[in-house]
Structure formats: C-alpha cells, structure tokens
Amino acid sequence: MPIPKYDEIMLPLLKALSDGKEHPKSELVEKMADHFGLTPAERTQLLPSTQATYIKNRTGWAGFHLRKAGLAFGPREVVMQITEDGRKFLATNPTKIDRSLLMQFEPFKAFMAEQKKRGIKAAQTKALNAVESGSSEQDETPEERIEDAFVELRERLITELRAKLANVDPFHFE
Fold first, then answer.
1. Contact present, 167 and 173 (Cβ < 8 Å)
2. Full residue range of the structural domain in which residue 142 is found
3. Helices 54-68 and 142-166 meet at what angle, rounded to 10?
4. Residue 109 CA to chain centroid, in angstroms?
5. Are 62 and 51 in contact (CB under 8 A)?
6. Is 53 helix (H, G, I), strand (E, B) or coil?
7. Secondary structure class of 80 (helix, strand, coil)
8. Per the domain annotation, does 100 fall within a domain?
9. What is the DSSP string of 96-137?
10. Which residues of 116-144 are buried (b: 16+ CB within 10 A; e: fewer)?
11. Closest CA to 55 of 36, 73, 82, 80
12. In a domain, 1, yes or no
C-alpha cells in the first residue's frame, strides 16, 4: 500500500486518540504506520527536501487539521489528545475526514477565514480555494507541493539548457 495522504490519516488518527489519553506524536506516527501496514522502506522514506519521513510529515499535518477543527488538542508540545468535540464527532461513526468536511466545524472555518484575511500568498490562496471546491490538490502537504514545484522548475531549466546547448558551436566549449 502506498503511503497514505494526510486526509486519509485524519480519521484513524482521531480514532487512535479516542481513549482520551495523551499520546506522544512519535507513538501516533508508529500507530499510523502500523494501521496502514507500511513496509520498513515506506516507514523510513524521506521527503526529498527535509529529514522528515513522509508518514511523520503527513501524520503531523493530519493532527494539525484535527487541532484546527477543535477535534484534538496538544496539551504539551509533543503530545496530542482528543477533545470532547472529537469524541462527539467519532460517535457519529464517520467514514472519512477530509478538509471539506472539517469546514463544518467553526474553529476550522474561522482558521481558514483568518488565513485569507491575513493576505496569504497566491499559492496558498490557490490551495485554500482547492479545499473549498473539493479539489484533489488538498491531498498533498505544503512541503510536497513545494517539492513538486521545485521538480517542475528543475525539469524546465534542464530542457531549456539542453535546447540552448544544442545550438552552441562545439568550439566554444574548449
């Protein structure tokens, strides 16, 4: 199974918190890796531009969204715990959680409105609009979108350089 996207992690993460106890974030990353049956290679696969693993990064973003919606909170820096609203939401037996569903929660809606109000950059505005329209671009974390843009720019540069070099007289290289 491929490494799940952060929105696929939100429901299992909230369920992992359902016992009401404080859970260290490192424990939650392991629980999510176990839940999705990740191989040792998938568990250690690093994002290209950072030292974080994909599963740690995506679990972190899933937790971020749950906290912004008021379904979970971090009583201390390295732990997460479910809120009463999170318990009530789980009692409805949801089949999935994604960012568009989180828009039904006032804290999340207020967070998104505040982000727009603060005058965020065009790429972030595009991502926010994607959330509101249900676009699949919301499946990627910000780091993954940045990495995709970097790869695209690098490929475009390579193509342009090759085209220019093909037109250069070989004697100019000596």
1. no
2. 6-173
3. 130
4. 18
5. no
6. strand
7. strand
8. yes
9. ---HHHHTTSHHHHHHHHHHHHTT--HHHHHHHHHHHHT-GG
10. eeeeeeeeeeebbebbeeeeeebbbbebb
11. 36
12. no
How far CA 128 is from CA of 79, 105, 124, 173, in Å, comes to 27, 16, 6, 48
pLDDT in tens, 134-173: 545 556 777 777 777 777 777 888 877 777 777 776 666 6
| Bridge partners for 82 per DSSP | 72
With respect to residue 131, please indicate whether it lies within any of the assigned structural domains.
yes
- The C-alpha torsion from 106 through 111 and 113 to 115, rounded to 10°, is -170
Contact between 95 and 7 under an 8 Å Cβ cutoff? The reply is no
**List of residues 6+ apart from 166 with CB closer than 8 A:** none
Q: What integer pLDDT is reported at residue 120 of this predicted model?
A: 57
Cα separation of 156 and 6, whole Å?
29
CA distance 37 to 145: 25
Q: In Å, how far are 18, 63, 151, 158 from 71, measured between CA atoms?
A: 10, 9, 35, 46
Rounded to two decimals, the pTM is: 0.72
Total domain count for the chain? 1
Residue 16: its pLDDT value, please?
A: 97
Tokens 């531009």 — which residue? 49
Give the single-character DSSP code of 141.
Answer: -
